[in-house]
Amino acid sequence: MKLNAGIVTAKLEETKAFYIGVLGFGVTFENEFYLLLHTPDQKAEISFLLPDHPSQQPLFHKPFSGEGMYLTIEVEDVDSFYREIKGKNIEIKIELRDEPWGDRHFAIQDPNGIGIDIVKYVSQAEK
Predict the structure, then answer these.
(1) What is the DSSP letter of 38?
(2) Helix, strand, or coil here: 73?
(3) Which of 54, 44, 68 is nearest to 34 (CA)?
(4) Structure confidence by residue, pLDDT tens digits, 86-97
(5) Which DSSP state fits 99?
(6) 3-state SS, residue 67
């Protein structure tokens, strides 16, 4: 089984620019109403779909409202990724921090209002 999260949004161009320019994603497929992106290692994908597109069933017509969703991206070196994002003048929503349960992370937001938690998981054995 493979999961591909899909977000219905009118902001396809802004979304594409953000995920490629800020996070280093690549384009797997795109047309005038659909955008499928992949992570730099091509192990995961996320898709974006224009709202109210006649090729889609009504279930997939309503746009995402901008709240109540987040993505988690696990990276090997969260500190260097944080510096890279800061260097691109992207607003940091949650500054780089260590959590009591071991995660080290920070968060940004995509053009659709989706929170993106960028994390390095730290096992209890590593603490």
Answers:
(1) E
(2) strand
(3) 54
(4) 999 999 999 999
(5) -
(6) coil
Query: Under a CB-based contact definition with an 8 Å cutoff, are residues 15 and 48 in contact?
Result: yes
pLDDT confidence of residue 122: 82
Q: Tens of pLDDT along 96-127?
A: 999 998 899 999 999 999 999 999 998 655 54
- Cβ atoms of 75 and 81 within 8 Å: the answer is yes
Residue 3's alpha-carbon distances to 19, 43, 45, in angstroms, are 18, 11, 8
Distance from C-alpha of 17 to C-alpha of 88, rounded to nearest angstrom: 13
Instruction: Give the residues across from 10 on adjacent strands.
Output: none
Find where tokens 């290692």 sit.
41
- Report the chain's terminal Cα–Cα distance, integer Å: 33
